[in-house]
Write a structure and sequence with these properties.
By secondary structure, chain A is an all-beta fold. Chain A is built from no helices and eleven strands. In chain A, strands 2, 4, 5, 6, 9, 10 and 11 form a seven-stranded mixed β-sheet that branches. A four-stranded antiparallel β-sheet of chain A has the order 1-3-8-7, with no helix packed on it. In chain B, about 35% of the residues are buried. Classes of the chains: A mainly beta (about 120), B mainly beta (about 110).
């Protein structure tokens, strides 16, 4: 059974930094691209970032480009999202999702339960 | 960026009724369109990929159709557990991957 467990969320002041983690199990992590999607309270889904299976290719939404960094450690079956210069509008539940294949273009076929990031002074 | 529009915003129906949800893309996404279901407090769940392929474990009452710019998600007979928000998402032209704003299926 695929399991994705996010952690690292919390309350952070504007301008601060946070690193989210997503521990994966139940599948061959190194064979799949991975993705972060966020959802502001009461709002819809917004794609944030994706990374291919090897960690070679990364992509970002314009809203986070230059502030967020996606990475992965295939030896630890873990996906990361380093978030710097956080803004109030970054406050959301952050979900990690498994892509259907090695490429970033694959469907988001399994999702974690999410971790809440609150940005407030 | 491809913009997805979903209609209606809210669909008020009773169990046993048929639900028809629409998703329209601002330009062709070929068949690279997915549908997700999200219940309150839960993560989204992939229902349909590539416009019409049911994901593993998804009941047969869910079906998807369409290509190009117009897509439909049909729930043939609503079960109580189907009342949720449904999102469409395209992976044809990326980045960014984009989602529609969602359709809420609520109890009438």
């Amino acid at each position: 059974e695929v399991q994705l467990l996010e952690s690292g969320g919390g309350l952070i002041q504007p301008g601060g930094s946070l690193r989210l983690s997503c521990a994966a199990s139940g599948f061959t992590f190194s064979s799949h691209a991975m993705t972060w999607v966020r959802q502001a309270p009461g709002k819809g889904l917004e794609w944030v970032s994706s990374i291919d299976n090897r960690g070679t290719n990364t992509h970002y939404a314009d809203s986070v480009k230059g502030r967020f960094t996606i990475s992965r450690d295939n030896s630890k079956n873990t996906l990361y999202l380093q978030m710097n210069s956080l803004r109030a509008e970054d406050a959301s539940v952050y979900y990690c999702a498994k892509n259907a294949g090695a490429m970033e273009s694959g469907d988001f076929d399994n999702w974690g339960q999410g971790t809440l990031v609150t940005v407030s002074s | 960026e491809i913009v997805l529009t979903q209609s209606p915003a809210t669909l008020s129906l009773s169990p046993g009724e048929r639900a028809t949800l629409s998703c329209r893309a601002s330009q062709s996404v070929r068949s690279f369109l997915a549908w997700f279901q999200q219940k309150p407090g839960q993560a989204p769940r992939l229902l349909i990929s590539d416009a019409s392929n049911r994901a593993s474990g998804v009941p047969a009452r869910f079906s998807g159709s369409g290509s190009g710019t117009d897509f439909t998600l049909t729930i043939s007979r609503l079960e109580p557990e189907d009342f949720a928000v449904y999102y469409c998402q395209q992976r044809s032209n990326w980045p960014p991957f984009t989602f529609g704003p969602g359709t809420k299926v609520e109890f009438k």
